[in-house]
Design a protein that fits this description.
The chain is mostly beta strands. About 5% of the residues lie in helices and about 55% in strands. The protein has one helix and twelve strands, in the order αββββββββββββ.
Length: about 230
């Protein structure tokens, strides 16, 4: 249970990355020849995501709580709902303002009377093209180094990994989920030559994932509700 709790909660919190955006606020019609830059996230912006898989994770909610204090990061509150828990697990995250990747996660809760703390630190190195601005046909590479740390009572475990991913903006699709119908940029994620995930992003949601398929984890993420301000 210790391994499952740490793994699935942290996987769920990673739903925010990567992000991108950029067309007119009042327009949802994407153009394949146009470049799209990111919007600023605002306090109160919220994304509620349903997770469909064989894992315990069921739902992830992320809400921006501070967009001013730090020049480098947004601060956010995270809420995770998982099978076997009778309450929402809350935590905190830092989101890089330049590449909109999650750089820190921290959640503390009690399971079967034992206090558990989960932390994650991530670093992103872009090789060649930067992520922004984006357009159909663009590719970029990211070297991602991540360290997970779990404290289960007095026991501490730590795991680090470094992986290189290639992203390709492969087209434009219309996607329907519980949150509505969206015109989205489709982004394929590769590790080597292997397709490991596909993300769909819409300007309506500030290009937070409307839908994501993870082939590695056999998981599907779908946006249920969202609230953003401009």
């Amino acid at each position: 249970m210790k391994k499952e709790v740490g793994h699935y909660i942290l996987v769920g919190l990673l739903i925010l990355v990567p992000l991108f955006n950029g067309c007119s606020i009042n327009s949802t019609k994407l153009v394949s020849s146009k470049s799209y830059d990111k919007y600023d996230l605002k306090v109160g912006d919220t994304w509620d995501v349903k997770v469909i898989s064989d894992a315990p994770l069921e739902r992830v909610v992320v809400t921006v709580t501070d967009d001013k204090t730090s020049a480098q990061n947004y601060l956010a509150k995270t809420e995770v709902q998982s099978k076997g828990f009778d309450r929402i697990i809350t935590g905190h995250a830092k989101i890089d303002k330049e590449n909109l990747g999650i750089t820190e996660l921290d959640a503390t809760f009690v399971k079967d009377g034992v206090p558990i703390r989960l932390t994650q630190r991530s670093e992103y190195s872009h090789a060649g093209n930067p992520k922004f601005p984006m357009k159909v046909g663009k590719e970029w590479e990211v070297i991602e180094t991540t360290t997970h740390r779990t404290m289960h009572g007095n026991e501490v475990s730590k795991k680090s990994s470094t992986k290189k991913f290639r992203y390709v903006v492969s087209g434009i699709d219309k996607i329907s989920v519980e949150a509505g119908e969206f015109e989205c940029l489709r982004v394929n994620k590769y590790e080597g030559d292997k397709l490991v995930a596909v993300h769909w992003y819409s300007p309506k949601t500030k290009f937070i994932s409307v839908k994501e398929i993870s082939y590695e984890k056999n998981e599907l993420y779908k946006l249920q509700h969202y609230k953003v301000s401009w």
